[in-house]
């Protein structure tokens, strides 16, 4: 389709010129770089990018250009990707369960920061990971969890030690000569700073229980993107709350802070352009993309309602909006978006439905199930 070579003004221009029949992910590098600078200027510590949310090379390259100097990696593939695209950047291997082969890969690659949430996995690290690499101390960060608060999705059900166990792991790592730090991940799409506050308070308690001052505190990802029209994320107030809570809990002896946003950095830099295959008997809308494609996350964390509908000539549909059921293209009945979405009454076959803020957990989880999912990429100056 030639979508790779050109920079378009906006999604409407792509629609007018190409009338694409497959889903297109429109990426705005300037939006990504602006968001990265917002984190770099506002967050009171080191900003690392959680690669899993969108590992597109263009994303990594634009983040490096904007000044991002660290990455949260979870697999040998992601370690190598960042080693190739950002060779000077820090790589934090923050997947708390790894095979011995994966640990060996991280050691060969000179990984300096590891997370852990159990005694068994800590033992594996002790066996394989040196305490120093080229004169630099190697960090081990117990990851702890609390009951979920304020998150759209419960990350604690898979990873994270209880505070008691985290205190044991912190002490053991320190005794063994590693740089002992702490990490947590409050969940994803956390719009309320309370999600971080309670974790930071418990981090202080864990340090007291262990009798160890954590060198760094990684406050995870979870920073929200703009998914719902009326709820614009307020990143600066979250950054301020994090800084204030750390000062309140740790005083002058505060650990250096790190964050590892995925969604909060990449999501709003993309819009997903889908096409209407049919409006079944004037009611249900069938799109050429759905939960096996770029909209995989919606049944898990809720709809994106920042939606525009354009004609094949790129003109906005302006009819009154009413709730419609939206289905994806596959023959699987789970391939539908949750609830109903408000779409203009004059929506018609061959129109385009644009989902804004769709850059996280979408490009990377797209499948070819049932022969659909031939997603392409395009670069845009912006979204208006
Ligand atoms: C997925 C993940 C992140 C990023 O989460 P977002 O909600 O996309 O910001 C950060 N840290 C860890 C450990 C993760 O697993």
TrEMBL record:
<comment type="similarity">
    <text>Belongs to the Orn/Lys/Arg decarboxylase class-II family.</text>
</comment>
<dbReference type="InterPro" id="IPR002433">
    <property type="entry name" value="Orn_de-COase"/>
</dbReference>
<protein>
    <recommendedName>
        <fullName>ornithine decarboxylase</fullName>
        <ecNumber>4.1.1.17</ecNumber>
    </recommendedName>
</protein>
<dbReference type="InterPro" id="IPR000183">
    <property type="entry name" value="Orn/DAP/Arg_de-COase"/>
</dbReference>
<dbReference type="GO" id="GO:0005737">
    <property type="term" value="C:cytoplasm"/>
</dbReference>
<keyword id="KW-0456">Lyase</keyword>
<dbReference type="InterPro" id="IPR009006">
    <property type="entry name" value="Ala_racemase/Decarboxylase_C"/>
</dbReference>
<feature type="modified residue" description="N6-(pyridoxal phosphate)lysine">
    <location>
        <position position="52"/>
    </location>
</feature>
<dbReference type="InterPro" id="IPR022653">
    <property type="entry name" value="De-COase2_pyr-phos_BS"/>
</dbReference>
<dbReference type="GO" id="GO:0033387">
    <property type="term" value="P:putrescine biosynthetic process from arginine, via ornithine"/>
</dbReference>
<dbReference type="InterPro" id="IPR029066">
    <property type="entry name" value="PLP-binding_barrel"/>
</dbReference>
<dbReference type="Pfam" id="PF02784">
    <property type="entry name" value="Orn_Arg_deC_N"/>
</dbReference>
<keyword id="KW-0663">Pyridoxal phosphate</keyword>
<feature type="domain" description="Orn/DAP/Arg decarboxylase 2 N-terminal">
    <location>
        <begin position="34"/>
        <end position="266"/>
    </location>
</feature>
<dbReference type="GO" id="GO:0004586">
    <property type="term" value="F:ornithine decarboxylase activity"/>
</dbReference>
<feature type="active site" description="Proton donor">
    <location>
        <position position="331"/>
    </location>
</feature>
<comment type="pathway">
    <text>Amine and polyamine biosynthesis; putrescine biosynthesis via L-ornithine pathway; putrescine from L-ornithine: step 1/1.</text>
</comment>
<dbReference type="InterPro" id="IPR022644">
    <property type="entry name" value="De-COase2_N"/>
</dbReference>
